[in-house]
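[job 4471] stage=fold_predict status=RUNNING
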Amino acid sequence: MKTNNTIFDENLIKFSSVLASKTSNGFVVLERNDKLPYAVLLKKKKKVDHFFNFVIFCVTLGLWSIAWIYITQVSSKAKKILIAIDEDGNPFEEKCYMG
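[job 4471] inference complete, writing C-alpha cells
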C-alpha cells in the first residue's frame, strides 16, 4: 500500500511535467503552490502584423479576411490558465477570467 508521502510525490511529478509542457509552449508562471499543487500561468498577447495580413487579403481577393479576423480576435489575445491536481491525482486545466 502506498503511503501519503509517495502519493504526494507522484502527484507533484505529474504536476511538474504538466507545468513544464505549458511553459515550453510560451506560458509564464505567475503563481505556484506546491503544497496544494496549483499554478496560475499567463501567455502574453501576440502582436498582429496588420500590413502583412492586408497584403495577403489583397492577393487572395478577400478570402484571407476570415483568417485575419480569427487571428485578430481569438489567437492573439492573452490567456490566463489555472493548472492543478484534483483529489484523485489527475491534472486539470481551467481558464481564468481576464477582467
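[job 4471] summary: The chain has three helices and four strands.
[job 4471] exit 0
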